[in-house]
Amino acid sequence: MKFTDLISTDAVLPALSARNKKQVLQELCAVAARKTGLPDREILAVIQQRERLGSTGVGHGVALPHGKLKALDRLVGVFARLVRPGDCEALDDQPVDLVFLLLAPESAGADHLKALARVARMLRDAALAERLRLTDDAEALYALLVNLAPPSHAAA
After folding, report:
1. Distance CA 47, CA 52 (A)
2. pLDDT tens-digit profile of 19-53?
3. Which of 51, 77, 78, 90 is 20 to 30 A from 68, comparing alpha carbons?
4. Catalytic residue among 60, 66, 112, 153
């Protein structure tokens, strides 16, 4: 999987202004709905169901909400840089300002987990995270995400 197959420039939100976790998820799911043609309510329900199992706020200001949808035919990503860090119930109790929503087909199997691990590794990179935090242009954020993504042949 090439990272450019996962996310596109129009799925990058450079300055998402949301007051809480619910609004962040609603906005990301609305973008995902436009990208996939699936109803945003259906996507949001899957994401909220996953969040009930445990927060996807992984720490260091990063959250990785994710889920699987039966009607989806490919992996889809949406990235947001929040204007104001917010409480997303992260594992380290720190506010979140970088969010990557990952959707996968129910049949994705290990591909879903590999993509999730790849995104997590990338956003754990402190230097990249700082560059993402200092960039407020969608195209520049996209370039950072795809240019600094590990090569597709790297082990996931």
Report:
1. 9
2. 899 999 999 999 999 999 999 999 999 999 999 99
3. 90
4. 66
| Contact of 57 with 96, CB cutoff 8 Å | yes
66 is catalytic: yes
Q: Which two tokens stand for residue 61?
A: 């200001």
Structural domain boundaries of the chain? 3-147
Domain 3-147: homologous superfamily in CATH: Mannitol-specific EII; Chain A (3.40.930.10)
Is the sign of the CA dihedral 18, 47, 155, 106 positive or negative? negative
Q: How many CB atoms lie within 10 A of CB 14?
A: 17
* Residue range 108-144, pLDDT digits in tens: 888 889 999 999 999 999 999 999 999 999 999 999 9
Taking the C-alpha atoms of residue 45 and residue 43, their distance in angstroms, rounded to an integer, is 5
As a whole number of angstroms, the distance between CA 24 and CA 88 comes to 9
Extract the tokens encoding 28. 């990301």
